[in-house]
Structures are given as structure tokens and as C-alpha cells.
Amino acid sequence: MRFPFLFTRHGVALALTTSAFLAGCGPAAQPSGVNDPLEPMNRGIHSVNKGLDSVLLRPGAKAYGFVPEPVRQGVNNVADTLDLPGDMANHLLQGRIGEATTNFLRFGVNVVFGLGGVMDVATAAGMPRDSTDFGETLHVWGIGEGPYVEMPGFGPSTARDAVGTVVDLVMNPVSRATSGDAATAATAAKLLARLNDRARYSNTFDSILYDSADSYAQARLLYLQSRRFELTRGGAASADGAAEDEGFIDPYEDQ
Amino acid sequence: MTSDTTLTRRGFGLVLGGGLVAAALPAAALNTDQAKALIDKAVGDINAVINSGRSESAMLGQFEQIFAKYADVPTIARSALGVTAKSASAAQMSAFTKAFQVYISRKYGRRFREFIGGRIEVESARPLKSYFEVISTAYLKGESPFEVRWHVTDKGGRSQFFNIIIEGVNMLASERTEIGAMLDKRKGNLDALIADLQKS
């Protein structure tokens, strides 16, 4: 899905320059709670997404589940390898040289020794995937998450991460370097990988979307909590910071 | 590693300071090691169930027992109910707590069932506010390891956990949202909610 009217190359360049200006301020503070001023619109998009899931993604994932597991894993590995150049670019923009290097080696190892990315030999060799995205780059540059947004076709996000998703799509080095059949194959691998994830975590997806009393509120909470957790990158494990206290709820305080 | 640094006067002061901080923490019965030991036991029980090869309903029954034994269910139930708990009668609270215990252990028991063939390992524990946080890692087949945190206290009269946080996703927060939405659907009628929880 592309939004050429919103994100012309010019617009992206502008956004990039503005962000670069903000760089050096350090990562944005991790907010807690839910900031959702667009709730009515988001709920509308949520029901569309839920409809898409029930007619396309969920049955598609079920059908795809009949493909032998090693084949599906191979497709996932290819999709993962295709994401690496983008991850690398974002790691560099975040100043994470070590992670960028690991992903560079991972890319090389899996392409050369893993049959062009079908086999994930790099993880076994001690180079596990460290994925990232432009939303995280914006976070590292000090941009706050902004209001919660549910994106059509993509699901839960925030204003910042929605911009990140679009930038990653438009700027992806692999799609910019490929065209024709190669580009179609790359897109197909990514879509199949998504189906596979939907199949693999079907219990979790189903319980949120179809078993909870308010699937919109559950999906929103789940996304915000896990995204914030992801962006702390294990920083919450340190015994010093305030970050890890964000999610702390004291059920004994008001009895 | 130069061990003599700790013996300088400044180092000695630091050690003393550390001791004072530790002394200012909740003195009472529970300490970090005991909190960790509690979760070690709970995790041991959970690991035994997920690798027992029993049927789903047998496993869910066992998870409920584990939950009742190691978790402060009345406090979790009250927290999930939010402000409604304040206006509820004692009879309503006791009926809700009972129904909630079945609901929550089934829900999280199903999640733990996905861990079949895997295991949870307790890593460390530390004081957090006036409680303790025990950090564990779940190792699942074909999955990168992920973090599960347990918040432990003895404020309910004995050592129990009152929250589980899986990769940043917080049980108390999720259940407050879920129970709140269930109440809204029933126009705030707690008795209707209890009846429906008992049926599920």
C-alpha cells in the first residue's frame, strides 16, 4: 500500500531534514497510558481491518498452514533476509554501528551460505536477527510516539510509527534496487511471511480479535505496551532507570 | 578486576551507603531471595504441567490450582474490576473473585499451553518500589527466548505474585481493559458479568 500523495520523495526528504535537525536530543521519553484522540476514526478502521482479517488473512493463514513447515520457514527466512538492508540503513541512522555490522554479516552469510537467504545459517552462527524500522529511528532521534493510529491493512500503530512504516516501504533498498519479477517475488515472500506469522500466533490473534469484549481496546493496549517495551531494548532490565516503572501497577494502593 | 578498589575509603563508604539503602527497603518478611524462590516453585509447577502431556482440560484445571496457590487472586480481581469494586457488595466481590479465578486461569492457562515442549527459567530478582520483581525467560520451540516478569509481594498475608508481564504486556492492565469492556457491554451490571463469567 502506498500513499504517493502524502509521501512524495520531496516530502520524505523534508521529513528527514526536520528529523535530522532534532537529532542529538537523545531518544524520546517513553510515555505511559493511552493517547487516542482519533478514537472514532481508528475504531472505524479497526472494524475494516477485522473484516479483512476474517475474510482474507485468517482463512489465508489456515490454508497456508497446509504447506510443509520447512517450506514456510524458508519463505520467512527469505523475507527476513530482504528486510536486512533496510534494517541496516536504520541501524546506521540510529548510530547503532554494532547492530548494523551484525546485520551486514548476517545478510552476507545467509545469501552466500544459506542458499540466497532460504536457510538461516547466521542465527546458528551466533548472529541472530536484530530487526528495526524507521519508527525506531525517529524514536532514537527524539520524536515522541504521538497519538495512537490504526492503519488500514497494517493494524495498530502510532503517528510516529505510521510515518516510519510508510518511509520504510518507500525507501526500502531492496524494492528500490529490484524491478519486474524480482520485485514481485520479494513482495510475495513478505506477504507469505505475514500469513505464516498469522498462522503461527493464531491463538493470540484470535483471542484478541474475536474473544475479547473490546478488540479495539485490547489491540491498542497490547500494541502500545509491546512497542514501548521493544523500544527500550532491554534497557528496562537495568536496575537504575525510571523506564521500567512505567508499566508498574500497584493493586494494593487504593484498598 | 582490582579487588583493592572496594577497600579504599570511598569504596568502603559506597558499601556502607548500599547497606543503608537496602535497610530502607521493606524490612519485613519477604526478601529478594524469597521472592525468587516463590517464582522458582511456581515456574517449576508450570513447567511440570506443560510437559505432562495431559489433555487440555486437565491442564487448565492444574493451572487454576497453580494460580490459586501462587497468585493473590482477590487483589488481581479487585484491580481488574476497577472503580466498580468500590460499590460492589461483599457477596458480589466474593462471587466475582471466584468466577474471575476460573476465567483468568483458563485464559492464561491456554497461553501457557502454547509453551508445550518449552520451559521457563527464573533468572534474577530485585526490589521494585515496595515490591519485588522476578525476571524469567521463556524458551519455546522454534522461537527466540522472551522475557516474563513476575511482581511479588506478601502484602496479601503470604508471599504471592500479583502481576505477570510478558514482553512488556501487563496482565493487570489487560484485564482492567477487558473486564471494563465486559462491564460496559452489560451497562455496568456486575451481576450479569458474574453470571456470564461463570458460564464461560
Structure description:
The complex is a heterodimer of chains A (255) and B (200). Chain A is mainly α. Chain A has one domain. In chain A, 63% of the residues lie in helices and 3% in strands. Chain A contains 11 helices and 2 strands. Chain A has helices spanning 9-22, 39-64, 69-93, 97-113, 121-124, 134-140, 159-171, 173-177, 180-200, 202-211, 215-232; strands at residues 148-151, 155-158. In chain A, strands 1-2 form a two-stranded antiparallel sheet. In chain A, strand 1 (148-151) and strand 2 (155-158) form a beta hairpin. In chain A, helix 10 (202-211) packs across helix 11 (215-232). Chain A is globular. Chain B has a 5-stranded antiparallel beta sheet with strand order 1-2-3-4-5. Chain B has a single domain (9-199), classed as Nuclear Transport Factor 2, Chain: A (Roll), CATH 3.10.450. In chain B, helix 4 (73-81) packs across helix 6 (90-113), helix 4 packs across helix 7 (171-185) and helix 6 (90-113) runs parallel beside helix 8. Chain B is α+β, with helices and mostly antiparallel strands. The longest helix of chain B is centred in the middle third of the chain and has 24 residues, at 90-113. Chain B contains 8 helices and 5 strands.
